Amino acid sequence: MVISYLYLPIQFICHVGLDNAGKTTILYKLSLGEVVKSTATIGSNVEMVKYKNIQLEIWDLGGQQNLRPFWATYYKGADAIVMVVDSTDRARVGVAKSELFNLLENEELSKVPILVLANKQDLKDAMTVEEMSTVLSLHSIRNHDWHMQACCAINGIGLMEALAWIHARTKGGGGNS
Ligand SMILES: Nc1nc2c(ncn2[C@@H]2O[C@H](COP(=O)(O)OP(=O)(O)OP(=O)(O)O)[C@@H](O)[C@H]2O)c(=O)[nH]1
Ligand SMILES: [Mg+2]
């Protein structure tokens, strides 16, 4: 029913990650169920996505280098951060790592769970979750609840698991936020 839908609690999520990682493609795959041809995001896109007993207000932020300093202006009140990484972008995985560890230091995010999406798993040269976890040094993260999920924004594989991980960390799903 429309009315009960409107009253579902809202969780505030930010999609961050380098340009071309697939953040916008994931946003529209989740909200529309379709692959939308995207152009580089300048600023942000926002969409509501219903999942079980919550609504996710997902802010998709532009990932180009000159836009990354603005990510932090969206962090206040965030219930989860989703960092999207292009699993084929070996050349820039070090940059992605540095952006990830930079956001982990942000005080606004001190209690916020971090989901890392290893996107573009449909491409044959994609790094595996194990390789990505190693190159991103995820196991050295001690001060955040984090998880890595393999996914593909084109066929949607892994995206429901991503939502389930976030849901489990909300009050409705048994978590604290
Ligand atoms: N093969 C494949 N291509 C993908 C996948 N996800 C996204 N893409 C493609 O990657 C390109 C960049 O996707 P976007 O969603 O625009 O990337 P973005 O992270 O939003 O980039 P910025 O807005 O510049 O930060 C597009 O051509 C997408 O079609 C995927 O899982 N597999
Ligand atoms: Mg985008």
TrEMBL record:
Mg(2+) binds at residues 24, 41. It comes from the Eukaryota. GO terms for biological process: establishment of cell polarity; vesicle-mediated transport. Gene3D superfamilies: P-loop containing nucleotide triphosphate hydrolases. GTP binds at residues 17-24, 63, 119-122. InterPro entries: P-loop_NTPase, Small_GTP-bd, Small_GTPase_ARF, Small_GTPase_ARF/SAR. Keywords: ER-Golgi transport, GTP-binding, Lipoprotein, Magnesium, Metal-binding, Myristate, Nucleotide-binding, Transport. Pfam families: Arf. The lineage of its organism: Eukaryota, Viridiplantae, Chlorophyta, core chlorophytes, Chlorophyceae. One of its GO terms (molecular function) is GTPase activity. Belongs to the small GTPase superfamily. Arf family. This is Uncharacterized protein.
